[in-house]
């Protein structure tokens, strides 16, 4: 069971993170309440995507969000990171899931034993806010679970994000390098399916059209 949690610096109080989105702020109804006056009513969110957690300050906060002293808009989090919402600090505790392998020995006289391999997902690269936007738009036209994504064209991405095609191409080139997508056919599709496989972006399935 994933027991990711936030520990408040001053009080030591611990809040378990929700399965998808955990809200942080000073207002009523947030999941992690912080009483410090420098904290906005809805300050930021902690978002889970597959095996990854990231903090997202959506520009709603007055005093910003920092991870290990660096101001961020959105950033992947790791175990032990110190996140500061305004002046209020918390520390992330994130026990990543393990993959257990049960192996039966070949020799019949040996007792069976369970072997657990500790395999961790590779850390994704740091992404700018615009690169996140491109990845979400690129992975949006998903089909049923397990099918390959047919991504939007460069022109469609530019129209969706209200930028030029040249800007989209530059963002894609940086994303190809960050995710080690080699040149070749359907490079955008390979990028889209890679980020979906890693759980970095969650795509909404396209509704099927029923024949009339």
Any descriptors?
single chain; 212 residues; alpha+beta; five-stranded mixed sheet; 21% helix; elongated
What does this protein look like?
The chain is α+β, with helices and mostly antiparallel strands. Helix content is 21%, strand content 26%. A hairpin with a 2-residue loop joins strand 5 (44-49) and strand 6 (52-56). The chain is elongated, with a radius of gyration of 21 Å. The relative contact order is 0.13.
Topology:
Layout: E1 5-8, E2 14-16, E3 21-25, E4 32-33, E5 44-49, E6 52-56, E7 65-67, E8 70-72, E9 74-77, E10 82-85, E11 88-93, E12 99-103, E13 113-117, H1 129-138, H2 154-161, H3 165-178, H4 187-198
Parallel strand pairs: 3-4
Antiparallel strand pairs: 1-2, 1-11, 3-5, 5-6, 6-9, 7-8, 7-10, 10-11, 12-13
- Percent helix among the residues? 10-25%
The largest pleated sheet is described as:
6 strands, antiparallel
Question: By helix and strand content, what is the structural category?
Answer: alpha+beta
> Strands across the major sheet, in which order?
2-1-11-10-7-8
Strand percentage lies at 25-35%
Summarize the structure in short.
The chain contains four helices and 13 strands.
């Amino acid at each position: 069971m994933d027991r990711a949690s936030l520990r408040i610096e001053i009080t030591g109080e611990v809040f378990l993170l929700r399965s998808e989105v955990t809200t942080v702020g000073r207002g009523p109804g947030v999941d992690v309440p912080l009483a410090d006056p420098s904290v906005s009513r809805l300050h930021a969110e902690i978002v889970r995507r597959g095996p990854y957690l990231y903090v997202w300050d959506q520009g709603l906060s007055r005093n910003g969000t920092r991870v290990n002293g660096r101001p961020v808009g959105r950033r992947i989090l790791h175990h032990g990171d110190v996140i500061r919402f305004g002046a209020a600090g918390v520390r992330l505790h994130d026990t990543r899931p393990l993959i257990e392998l049960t192996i039966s020995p070949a020799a019949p006289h040996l007792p069976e034993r369970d072997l657990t391999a500790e395999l961790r997902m590779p850390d994704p690269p740091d992404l700018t806010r615009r690169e996140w936007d491109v990845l979400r738009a690129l992975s949006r036209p998903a089909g049923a679970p397990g099918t390959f994504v047919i991504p939007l064209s460069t022109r469609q991405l530019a129209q969706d994000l209200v930028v030029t095609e040249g800007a989209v191409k530059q963002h894609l080139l940086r994303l190809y390098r960050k995710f080690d997508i080699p040149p070749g056919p359907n490079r955008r599709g390979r990028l889209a399916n890679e980020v979906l496989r890693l759980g970095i972006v969650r795509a909404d399935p396209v509704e099927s059209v029923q024949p009339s």
